[in-house]
Amino acid sequence: MIDHRLEELWPQLTPSAREIMIKVAELLVGGHSGTLEMHCLKGGVRMLREGGWREYRPGEDPSNPSK
Fold this sequence. Notes:
This protein is an alpha+beta fold. It has helices spanning about 5-10, 15-30, and strands spanning about 35-40, 45-50, 50-55. It has a three-stranded antiparallel sheet with strand order 1-2-3, with helices on one face.
């Protein structure tokens, strides 16, 4: 079940923000363990995982994120 706060906020998010939230959920469901540090950037996010920073921007192929 989706938390009611997320249901309330979802319609207010931009399409890019929605895509970023989906990416975060995929990482969590994918079994990511440990610390996941994210920095919001204009148009994307920068994530510290797997020993290094990776950038993700909406519309980008998630299997090949920017380094």
